[in-house]
């Protein structure tokens, strides 16, 4: 499972990149919260067997929300969201959805233990991890998509098991199975690889630059851009 | 190297977040050019030992560039940079520097033998590798920097992921896909141009493409406001 701080960092990076004029403390908080929402299926797994990386980590929720947003803002004659919150509400809504799907769900797909993309239609965990390169001797080599794999699922990705056979361990639910397991050891991972530390530091530095209170009117940017980076590293 | 495409993907996300009103195709092109430029140091490999991940991949040159830009735009009475490229250009220069540090040097720092962090001041490759977690049994655990205490002499040894110097480290790249001595003896040379070597790198490529596509699809706020 992607470390929770990394999920928040990816949400913050998306917020900075996509909010545009709607960027402020509140809207960033909304997008980061949306990115963290899928993580809550780990809480659900305390009651529902195999809910982690499945219940909120599937394609259906983002698709349904996107359909709903599109219907409300583009197809209906009067959009409830726009009437209530104006243009900013629509922008924050779409970016929050991107935070949910792209920062909240997607990172889990690219590393063990994977996500159950089609849950609850099928309960197979998929993981997309491999390599893609061009070699002067072997031509194009790719191992992300495997069409020949005889896994249990419908999609042509490597499978790591089903919600029944594979229990995903999280800091909320260390053994991945229903029940509180109060006595067991819990690990809250901040980052578990160098690149994750880099992404986290980039997000902190980006937000520091965007929010920097020391901006002077008339000067575009300052030396702070790099210094903020140095400090957070 | 982490594939240039991965650098570019992460660079697009960071640039989109920092460029504000200066975001357009030309600004992105400048940022991407700055992100790809350091790989040129792999061309120096045949004439300088350990040039790749050294000449273009350190934190000293970016720090010097930051000092130069801030001296020119803040302290001097007439800024050469601002006169030539206006405020917009100054902002793009800062963003390009930020992106170079985070999306290129720092990402490579966390890959293979790392980068020559303080070259040319100090010749040593460092690799950023480890994890940081809080465990209910062991408390805060970090493995990025190893600190060893010799029980007999009381000497403290700090290892921040040092992997060697330009003399001992060769980071494989398409120009020199293996150690130069091995290459001299090899009959066929397999040059590999990676796109994404792991799932998370494919994710960063996708994240960059998604960001640019989403920015294109977004409506113009001023036009919508007039409705």
Automatic annotation (TrEMBL), chain A:
It comes from the Archaea. Keywords: Membrane, Transmembrane, Transmembrane helix. The chain crosses the membrane at residues 50-71, 92-110. The keyword Transmembrane applies. This is Metal-dependent hydrolase. It comes from Halorubrum rubrum.
TrEMBL record, chain B:
It holds the Pfam family YdjM. It comes from the Archaea. Keywords: Hydrolase, Membrane, Transmembrane, Transmembrane helix. The chain crosses the membrane at residues 53-71, 92-112. The keyword Protein biosynthesis does not apply. Residues 162-171 have a biased composition (Polar residues). GO terms for molecular function: hydrolase activity. InterPro entries: YdjM-like. The keyword NAD does not apply. Residues 155-180 are annotated as: Disordered. This is Metal-dependent hydrolase. It comes from Halorubrum rubrum.
